[in-house]
Amino acid sequence: MTASKSTPAVAADHERIAESVSGTLAERNTVESLSAWQRLHRFFHANPTAAPAIVLLAAIAAFTLIVGDRFLSPFNLSLVLQQVTIIGTLGVAQTLIILTMGIDLSVGAIMVLCTVVMGRMAVDFGLPPFGALLLGLGAGALCGAINGSLVTRVKLPPFIVTLGTWNIFFALNLWYSKSETIRSQDIESAAPLLQWTGHAIDVFGARLTYGSLLMLGLFGLIWFALNWTAWGRHVYATGDDKDAAELAGIRTRRVLQSIYVLAGLICGLAAWLMIGRIGSVSPQVGFMSNLDSITAVVIGGTSLFGGRGSIFGTLIGALIVGIFRNGLALAGVDVLWQQFTVGLLIIVAVAIDQWIRRVSA
Amino acid sequence: MTDETTPVLSARGLIKRYGRVTALDSADFDLYPGEVLAVIGDNGAGKSSLIKALSGAVVPDAGEIRMNGRPISFRNPMEAREAGIETVYQTLAVAPSLGIADNLFLGRELRKPGILGSVFRMLDKAEMRRRATQQLSDLGLLTIQNITQAVETLSGGQRQGVAVARSAAFGSKVVVLDEPTAALGVKESRRVLNLIKDVRDRGLPVVLISHNMPHVFEVADRIHVHRLGRRAAVIRPDTHSMSDAVAIMTGAVDGDAAA
């Protein structure tokens, strides 16, 4: 019949359209001339760590000019690294969760609870140090598993879940520790292993603690897992579009659960670094570091809307905060301006992220 | 494509009820090797229930599905996929921020051979990129230059192309496309229609669900008209017109008489 048969004119028209289509497709990717601004946008879009890396280098250059050699000395820079060790480590956990479009407000509380478990197991119950360490890490993983189950099984929003568990874990920590600090010398005699992360090696005047080296190792490990394993691809896909990931055959519930357990475990590791850094175990220190970890992630260019960002961005983000605090302190600026600057950085970082995310397809 | 050949995929007497609503009322279906079979029908005629039953997304209450003549049943989409039926959903099921190669292999990534793959679970990115490039060039989609380019930077038609390429790469028996041109402009639709023909020409039968009559009449070898939960007729574009199809779809003409 007539409807299915196109007239020669229409057929020719189709041919013409088909040709122009392949033409435009090719142009879009090759010969299209971009303005410098568009090129910049593409570059940042393809390299999410580029913007924070530029900020970090600029900050280092600026403080070198303002403060001088005191700032750029290996010793001072390694000090910054020590100062960001805990936030950086918690930032790894936070990055994993934010990549899946979640947020974890409980990381600080989990870490403190884990320090108390490690300290009490070793000092009060006389467990071998290694056993105390494992129990502390296990406690972290368990806390993460609770968060994960509430998110994946009960299907509550991560913000609410972790706001709740932040309070719960912190209360448990106060109860279990009886709000008492475990003294540094008690830990030293019962379980020196717990303080090992605070020991340092000297490299050209830089004091590198084992804790900060562990943190760098953790970044490397998680980078590998995110970029070179199927699990990592699934984390990104789940954060990007959960329903689509499911249709593509990814078991998103499992991915999410594994993310929360791993984040809890990393908080346990942060607990070990924390004991090394301050020597003692205090139930009152560090439970607010959840916000600092989110700051590091956001400044590092990971999007709060999931599926976009990189783990090393978080390291850079933590370093930017550390550099600004250290540099401003050395320049003799009042502490309140450090906080002011960090606030500005957050807002600028998110504004840049919004701009980068706008894709002109 | 005569009726003596065994259908690649067929169904007899499929029934699916949701409460009092009968979505599939003893529906039949036949897909023959190397053809594009369009499935058309009014809204609520039960086409999507039929397709879901064939792709494992719903389990029919009664009826029989056969692949190459052998009875088969799917409890979930993964089982259908393992049997060689790949479905491209309307939502495409791609991860926008991941690259083209990553998306092509999403959910079935290749790992490196040896200890790197088995112990360290390391992905074989080079091999995945190579195969993805191969797949896209086979389908004439090589205008997509950079195989690591994020899918969100592609146009709607190119994204559809990636999703179709994925299904063609892994669908060993059947490719099901759900409204592939619904969200596309004229030029992009054309590109996708050509892609459908390419897939068929490579020997993979295609099931095309579409509302767009001109598109259906252009690429389909046969047209399955669905009405009131069952197959009303199977017509051919060269013997029937679009108005015939619409008449059967709406019940103005009795399907059996028209076919």
TrEMBL record, chain A:
<feature type="transmembrane region" description="Helical">
    <location>
        <begin position="336"/>
        <end position="356"/>
    </location>
</feature>
<keyword id="KW-0472">Membrane</keyword>
<feature type="transmembrane region" description="Helical">
    <location>
        <begin position="208"/>
        <end position="226"/>
    </location>
</feature>
<feature type="transmembrane region" description="Helical">
    <location>
        <begin position="130"/>
        <end position="150"/>
    </location>
</feature>
<protein>
    <submittedName>
        <fullName>ABC transporter permease</fullName>
    </submittedName>
</protein>
<feature type="transmembrane region" description="Helical">
    <location>
        <begin position="49"/>
        <end position="67"/>
    </location>
</feature>
<feature type="transmembrane region" description="Helical">
    <location>
        <begin position="255"/>
        <end position="275"/>
    </location>
</feature>
<keyword id="KW-0812">Transmembrane</keyword>
<dbReference type="Pfam" id="PF02653">
    <property type="entry name" value="BPD_transp_2"/>
</dbReference>
<feature type="transmembrane region" description="Helical">
    <location>
        <begin position="296"/>
        <end position="324"/>
    </location>
</feature>
<comment type="similarity">
    <text>Belongs to the binding-protein-dependent transport system permease family. AraH/RbsC subfamily.</text>
</comment>
<dbReference type="InterPro" id="IPR001851">
    <property type="entry name" value="ABC_transp_permease"/>
</dbReference>
<keyword id="KW-1003">Cell membrane</keyword>
<feature type="transmembrane region" description="Helical">
    <location>
        <begin position="105"/>
        <end position="123"/>
    </location>
</feature>
<keyword id="KW-1133">Transmembrane helix</keyword>
<feature type="transmembrane region" description="Helical">
    <location>
        <begin position="156"/>
        <end position="176"/>
    </location>
</feature>
From TrEMBL, chain B:
<dbReference type="Pfam" id="PF00005">
    <property type="entry name" value="ABC_tran"/>
</dbReference>
<dbReference type="InterPro" id="IPR050107">
    <property type="entry name" value="ABC_carbohydrate_import_ATPase"/>
</dbReference>
<feature type="domain" description="ABC transporter">
    <location>
        <begin position="9"/>
        <end position="253"/>
    </location>
</feature>
<keyword id="KW-0547">Nucleotide-binding</keyword>
<keyword id="KW-0067">ATP-binding</keyword>
<dbReference type="InterPro" id="IPR003593">
    <property type="entry name" value="AAA+_ATPase"/>
</dbReference>
<dbReference type="InterPro" id="IPR003439">
    <property type="entry name" value="ABC_transporter-like_ATP-bd"/>
</dbReference>
<protein>
    <submittedName>
        <fullName>Sugar ABC transporter ATP-binding protein</fullName>
    </submittedName>
</protein>
<dbReference type="InterPro" id="IPR027417">
    <property type="entry name" value="P-loop_NTPase"/>
</dbReference>
<dbReference type="GO" id="GO:0005524">
    <property type="term" value="F:ATP binding"/>
</dbReference>
